[in-house]
Each structure stands twice: as structure tokens, then as C-alpha cells.
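Ops channel
N.P.: pipeline sanity check, posting one input/output pair.
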């Protein structure tokens, strides 16, 4: 009788351990990822971003595009665009942030077969002003486990500190609270 109880407890514990969600990637170094920019030049994440805070947005599919588009204007206005002082509202405080910013479409598995065509389409519908912030990952590794991806149709955002360590993650559609959290982390240092 005791043996059955002990075996049942071991089985239940094993099932619980197997289905325990990962603690996430916060506090870990962003995994090495070799990308290329819009000109075909290699950019190694996070190695080439060290020394600055970095915001990386990763998307796996066109299904993630709608949510990703909700981020483009707020991120552009906060990190890239310059406020014209003559047009700025008196209460509009603009801070110049010295951060790396990258949008990274990922082509893995079956999507890798169409990567050349997809890259051309992305470039064609992306404002040229955003080209310096666009990187492409075209590799065999999915990073699903390393970056704790749950859904292919959702964009994921990672804030890296100056050493390449992930300090914050979020996903999905833009909202002000997510951007405020990103800014709080960057402004702390």
C-alpha cells in the first residue's frame, strides 16, 4: 500500500515538473544570433550591441505583423524620430535615448525556403528611414527554448542591458504600460 502511494506521488511530481512553465529569459544573456542588415552585412546579436541598451523585436510570421505594426510609430517616435521644438507641445518632454533598436523577422524551418522573396517584400513595404533598424535572421535555429517563445503569431520584445543580458521581455500588441516599463529600465541607467 505504501509503495503505491509513493509511486503515485513520484508520478504526480514528475508530471508537475514536466508542465512547470519556464522562469523566462530575464537575467540571462541574449543568445548569440547571427543576422544580416538590409545591405547583407552581418550583425551579431548581442555581441555587436554591447555598450548600449538594446531593444530587439523578434517576429516569426506575417501573422505577427498586425501586432508588430502597433509598436512601430511609438518606438520610432520615442527612440528614433526627432521632435521639432517649434511643433512640440509645451508638455511634450523629449529625451534622447542612446539605444540600439532592431526589428528582426526570423526565417526558420519551412519559412527559410521563401526568405529571399519575403525579405524583398519586407524591404519594399518598409519606410527606408527604418532600414538601419531592420535585421534578418535566416537560420536553422528557432530559439524557441532560449527565448521562451510561446506563439509564432506574436511579436516578442527583449530589452538588453549594456552587457547583453535580458532585463525585460514583453510580447503582443503595443500598450503604453509596456513602453513605460521599457523606458523605466533604460532610464535607470
Amino acid at each position: 500500500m505504501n509503495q503505491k502511494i509513493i509511486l503515485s506521488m513520484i508520478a504526480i511530481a514528475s508530471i508537475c515538473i514536466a508542465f512547470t512553465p519556464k522562469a523566462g529569459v530575464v537575467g540571462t544573456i541574449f543568445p548569440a544570433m547571427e543576422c544580416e542588415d538590409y545591405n547583407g552585412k552581418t550583425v551579431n546579436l548581442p555581441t555587436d550591441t554591447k555598450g548600449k541598451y538594446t531593444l530587439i523585436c523578434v517576429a516569426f510570421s506575417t501573422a505577427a505583423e498586425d501586432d508588430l505594426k502597433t509598436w512601430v510609430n511609438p518606438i520610432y517616435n520615442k527612440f528614433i524620430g526627432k521632435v521639432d521644438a517649434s511643433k512640440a507641445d509645451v508638455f511634450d518632454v523629449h529625451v534622447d535615448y542612446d539605444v540600439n533598436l532592431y526589428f528582426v523577422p526570423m526565417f526558420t524551418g519551412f519559412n527559410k525556403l521563401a526568405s529571399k522573396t519575403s525579405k524583398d517584400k519586407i524591404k519594399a513595404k518598409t519606410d527606408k528611414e527604418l532600414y538601419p533598424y531592420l535585421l534578418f535572421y535566416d537560420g536553422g535555429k528557432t530559439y524557441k527554448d532560449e527565448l521562451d517563445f510561446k506563439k509564432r503569431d506574436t511579436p516578442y520584445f527583449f530589452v538588453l542591458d549594456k552587457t547583453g543580458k535580458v532585463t525585460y521581455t514583453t510580447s503582443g500588441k503595443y500598450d503604453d504600460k509596456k513602453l513605460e516599463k521599457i523606458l523605466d529600465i533604460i532610464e535607470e541607467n
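N.P.: looks fine end to end. Residues 4-23, 83-94 have pLDDT under 50 and may be disordered.
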